[in-house]
Structures are given as structure tokens and as C-alpha cells.
Specification:
It is built from eleven helices and two strands, in the order ααααβαααααααβ. By secondary structure, it is mostly helical.
Length: 228
């Protein structure tokens, strides 16, 4: 068990180092040697866990899936808002999320398959919107799959704009504006009136998760891991 725990810690150390390097350098300029130096591990240890720079980048991209976790809400629209706002908050505070977004939006990363994060986000949004529709929260004309793609594409554009203008510092405000424009065309006004769309919502949700981290609260949490 101790050996397994050590291997898990080593993998996390390597991923954290790769995230820092990818976030600072971008995919093309990042090198295995710099990641090794940052991680402080041997080449053998790195290649035991990751076959290549591409494999490392995919590992960083996949880490975003582990962060699409919010407490289950009776209102599924609030749950969707919480997922989006939590991600926006973590972009300002979490190097792994920043690196994953840098990679997914890096148009110079010609050799890297960047489709995964977009497809996974669409599935997550589609599932949440489908749940909201089943609970009668959406307007009759809404097609969850279409709305999911609009939300993800718009969110990606807002992230890119925020990064260029303020290094993500204004992202919560921009995301609030986006949701206030999109949700009235999707959600019943009676439901929308109860939704918390404040700019600090992401920080509130993260604090809630941190408070629950040491408790056996898994039944109360919903991890939106897409299938396939």
C-alpha cells in the first residue's frame, strides 16, 4: 500500500509540474527536461507514468474532469451555474485548471488533440440541462444538446477574452454577464428568479466543497463524469 501511495504522489507531482510548465510556456515550447526539473523526479519515474509530452498534456487536460464536482442541488439550473462559476473561480486560483485551459485553447498545439475538454464539457452541460428539463425548469423549445454546445463555445470565448485582457481576474464578472444573457432564453423565469448568479458564487461553492472534504459526504456530491 505504501508503494502504491508513493506512486500516486509521484504521478501527482509530475502532473503538477507539467501544469506549471504548460501554463507558462504553452505546449510547443514546453520540454520534458523542464518538466523533470520542475518536478524533481528522475526520467525513469516520469516515463513510468507518462509515455510522452503528449501523454502528459492529456493527463493535465483530463484533470479538469476531476474538478467538475459540485454539491447536488434540488434545482438543476443552479447546479449548472455552480459548475460554470466554480470553474471560473478555479481558473484564477488553480494552476492545474489554468494549464488545462491554456492547452485546450492553444491553437499552436498542432500535435495535441484538444477536442477532449470541449466534448466532455458539452456532455456535462447536456446532462445537467437534460435533468433540468426533466424537472420542468426549461422553456419548451430548448434542446439540451444544442444549448450545451452554445454554452461551452461561449464560455470558451469568454475565458480566452478574459485571459488576454486581465489574466482571468475579471472572469467571474464576464461569466455572470454571459449567464444573464443566455439563461433567460433557456430557463423559465420563475426558476431563474431563484438562481444565485452572483460573481462570488464560485468561491462560495469551493468553500462548501472544502468544508465537506474531510467528511464522508459522497452521497451528497454529484460528479459529472461523462460516460465514454
Amino acid at each position: 500500500m505504501a508503494k502504491q501511495d508513493r506512486a500516486i504522489r509521484t504521478r501527482r507531482t509530475i502532473l503538477a509540474a507539467a501544469a506549471r510548465v504548460f501554463e507558462q510556456r504553452g505546449y510547443q515550447a514546453a520540454t520534458i527536461s523542464e518538466i523533470l526539473t520542475t518536478a524533481g523526479v528522475t526520467k525513469g519515474a516520469l516515463y513510468f507514468h507518462f509515455e510522452s509530452k503528449d501523454d502528459l498534456a492529456q493527463g493535465v487536460l483530463a484533470e479538469q474532469d476531476q474538478r467538475l464536482v459540485v454539491p447536488r442541488r434540488p434545482c438543476r439550473t443552479q447546479e449548472l451555474v455552480d459548475v460554470v462559476m466554480l470553474h471560473a473561480h478555479r481558473l484564477r486560483t488553480d494552476p492545474m485548471v489554468r494549464a488545462g485551459v491554456r492547452l485546450s485553447l492553444d491553437q499552436q498545439a498542432h500535435d495535441l488533440d484538444r477536442s477532449g475538454p470541449f466534448l466532455r464539457w458539452v456532455r456535462v452541460m447536456d446532462q445537467l440541462l437534460g435533468d433540468a428539463r426533466a424537472q420542468g425548469e426549461l422553456l419548451p423549445h430548448v434542446v439540451p444538446a444544442e444549448t450545451a454546445e452554445v454554452l461551452v463555445g461561449s464560455f470558451a470565448g469568454v475565458q480566452a477574452m478574459s485571459q488576454a485582457i486581465s489574466d482571468y481576474q475579471d472572469l467571474p464578472d464576464r461569466v455572470c454577464v454571459l449567464l444573464r444573457h443566455v439563461l433567460p432564453t433557456v430557463v423559465l423565469s420563475s426558476v431563474l428568479a431563484s438562481i444565485d448568479l452572483s460573481r462570488t458564487r464560485g468561491a462560495v461553492v469551493l468553500a462548501e466543497l472544502d468544508a465537506d472534504a474531510g467528511a464522508d459526504s459522497s452521497p451528497a456530491l454529484l460528479e459529472r463524469q461523462p460516460v465514454g
